[in-house]
Amino acid sequence: MKLTQSRAILSYLAAKYNLYGKDLKETTLINMYTDGTMDLIFLITVVYFKPAEEKEKEIELILEKAKNRYFCVFEKILKNHGQDYLVGNKFSWADIQLLEVILMVEELCANVLSEFPLLQAFKKRISNIPTIKKFLQPGSQRKPPPDERYLTTVRKVLQF
C-alpha cells in the first residue's frame, strides 16, 4: 500500500499496531488529542523558517501557547483521567504525539514543563518504554531541529 499525507500514514499505523483505542469513543479522543498536538507541532515547525528578527518573538509566543493553551489542558486530562496514559489505560498514538510535542517544545525551552508535574511524569514514563527509549538515544532516527545551513538552503530554494 502506498500512502501519502502524514496524518493518513499515522492513522494507518495506529490502527495496524493497535494504538487507536478499543472503541469509537477512545478513537475519537485519540484523534482529538493528536489533532491538538499537531496544531502545536505545526507552529514549532514553521518557526525555524522565520527570519532571525522574527524568530525570538515567535518562540516566545509558542512557549506561551504551549504552557497556557496546550500543556495545561493535557495536565488536566491526565489528572482527571487518573491513569498512566491519555486514553483508557493503554498506550496509544495520542501518547506518542504528546511526547513528541513535549520534546519539540523542550528544544525551545528546556524547563517548559516545570509547572506541569503530571506531564513531567508522563514524559518520563513514555520515554522509558524500551522501544521509545531506544529511538530517543543519540544517533537515532529522531531528527533534531534544522540547523542554519539547512534553513539557508531551504530559504534559497523557496525564495523567502
Which helices and strands, and how do they pair?
Elements: H1 6-16, H2 24-47, H3 52-81, H4 93-108, H5 117-127, H6 130-135, H7 148-158
Helix pairs in contact: 2-3, 2-4, 4-5
Question: Brief description of this entry?
Answer:
With 160 residues, the protein is mostly helical. The protein has helices spanning 6-16, 24-47, 52-81, 93-108, 117-127, 130-135, 148-158.
Describe the structure.
It is a single chain. This protein is mostly helical and about 160 residues long. Helix content is about 70%, strand content about 0%. It contains seven helices and no strands. The longest helix has 30 residues. It is globular, with a radius of gyration of 17 Å.
Describe this protein with a few key phrases.
single chain; 160 residues
The major sheet is characterized as: none
SSE run: HHHHHHH
Distance between the termini: 36 Å
Strand content: under 5%
Structural class: mainly alpha
Overall shape: globular
> How many individual β-strands?
0
Calculate Rg over CA atoms: 17 Å
Per DSSP, the total helix count is: 7
Extract low-pLDDT stretches: none
The share of residues in helices is 55-70%
Overall pLDDT metric: 90
